[in-house]
Amino acid sequence: MQTGFDDFLTLEVNDLHVDVLTGIYSEETHLPQPLRISIRARLRIADHYEPETPLTASKNYMDLKHAASTALPEGVHFTLIEAVADHIIDTILLQDDKVSHVEVKIVKLALSERGEEIGITLGRGRR
Question: How far is residue 98's CA from residue 10's CA, in Å, rounded to a whole number?
Fold first, then answer.
């Protein structure tokens, strides 16, 4: 019986604080900017997950963290945070063909005056 709901698995890493060279204003272009990055990666789901199901049936969360931190090129200035998000998405899609879609949310912490979240969310599916 079709219920209208598809099964899915989404891995998440939320609220990583990463300093990235980004920005368009002169005061932003020479120092890393503090960003809060969250990632959601949708995976092709296994038929069922048993207690002994190996990690190869899913994905290591640390791969997502790596894509948003150590995989960002050192010394490269990203004019737009959209480019930072695209780089993270490309890294995750290249890591594992089980990943079908990645969504990256980036908040520019330096712009926040009263705790508001100013930034972008970019999502891309496998092409």
Answer: 11
Q: 78: which DSSP letter? A: B
- Whether 108 is in a domain gets the answer yes
pLDDT per position as a tens digit, 7-64: 889 999 999 999 999 988 666 667 899 999 999 999 998 889 999 999 989 999 999 9
User: 91 is in which domain, residue-wise?
Assistant: 9-125
CATH of the domain at 46: 3.30.1130.10
**Pairwise CA distance, residues 33 & 40, whole Å:** 22
Which residues, in sequence order, are CB contacts of 25 under 8 Å at separation 6+? none
